[in-house]
């Protein structure tokens, strides 16, 4: 999704350099840069590895960066490396590293709910689909409304929601008076719509732009 968005923006080289080839990982404090390179070189050509150190003591903070030559290599490393590394795409360099490290630590310490995460999940607020949330009584349907402060591109929004099985259609609607985005999504079953809502409500797409996903009445009996 990120690669598609960057190409549509017309500046995908810059975006790939900044956001799609660098990953952020949690590592043992005993690791050297060579150890880090050795663990991650199997996924592709590494441009550089770096370990974040305490500025006062020089000791490792147990965090590091791995920069690949291609976005596909970074994606493969995130997918296939051991879960203990908690690998994610790194924030752009223009965001302060201290802020990013703090966010990463606080998010990484939350308990993982394996089996309840989509393959592309990288932000815990929408990866933690707790069973208690599913019991909240609200009208549900097979149809969703998606709202954004930025306009949607039909093909990209379809590709995003098609990650949940059962997508029947994605209808992007444009308001000529505003620059916001609005779309109607429909799935073949209410279960797929529920899953998509809880996974993608609050998801940042493009990065920095949070999606609002709510149920739309579809005329069916929601009790089923």
TrEMBL record:
Signal sequence extent: none
GO molecular function: RNA binding
Keyword Hydrolase recorded: no
Protein name: RBM45 protein
RRM domain span: 21-95
InterPro entries: Nucleotide-bd_a/b_plait_sf (IPR012677), RBD_domain_sf (IPR035979), RBM45_RRM2 (IPR034206), RBM45_RRM3 (IPR034207), RRM_dom (IPR000504)
SMART domains in UniProt: RRM (SM00360)
Alphabetized UniProt keyword annotations: Repeat, RNA-binding
